[in-house]
Design brief:
By secondary structure, the chain is an alpha+beta fold. The chain contains seven helices and four strands, in the order αββαββααααα. The strands form two sheets. The protein has a two-stranded antiparallel ribbon with strand order 1-2. A hairpin with a 5-residue loop joins β3 and β4.
């Protein structure tokens, strides 16, 4: 592969990414979200991953006598998960960043704006939907696989 071919393929890949998506919010309707920038995605995932622990559940033995086990991610700090989700939702939705809403926040914590309109579970669910809608985790897995090859 030549340098120009590499550049063209990288640009083409970037252009194919979903940049804007409509996501349904219960009792509100379809709301537009923008693709999170890389640093926001990484910060969100670091906070989410740092807020859980891995539990290994032993399921017994298989026919060959090998141990069967399953790994389960269990949230440890729901407050941290909520905070990370709220910030992530704020950063990906221009409605939440609108000046009219920021003017209503007296303590300067603009990241809390989604919590003024949405319930806790809605915020965490919405952050997950944003990840799914923009296929971010699938892209990361594909990029890692491409690097291996």
């Amino acid at each position: 592969m030549q340098l120009q071919e590499f550049i063209n393929k990288a640009r083409e890949k970037r252009e194919k990414r979903i940049k804007v998506a409509q996501i349904e919010i219960k009792d509100i309707g379809l709301v537009e979200f923008q693709r999170p920038v890389e640093k926001d995605f990484v910060a969100y995932m670091n906070k989410i991953n740092g807020s859980s622990r891995t539990i290994i559940e032993h399921l017994g033995k298989n026919e060959e006598g090998e141990d069967l086990k399953r790994e389960i991610q269990e949230p440890e700090d729901m407050g941290m998960i909520l905070k990370a989700s709220t910030e992530f939702v704020y950063k990906t939705c221009s409605f939440f960043r609108a000046k009219e809403l920021r003017d209503e926040v007296t303590d300067g914590n603009y990241f809390s704006i989604p919590s003024l309109f949405l319930e806790t579970t809605e915020i965490m669910d919405l952050a997950s939907k944003i990840m799914d809608k923009f296929e971010i985790q699938e892209e990361k897995a594909k990029d890692e696989e491409d690097l291996k090859n």
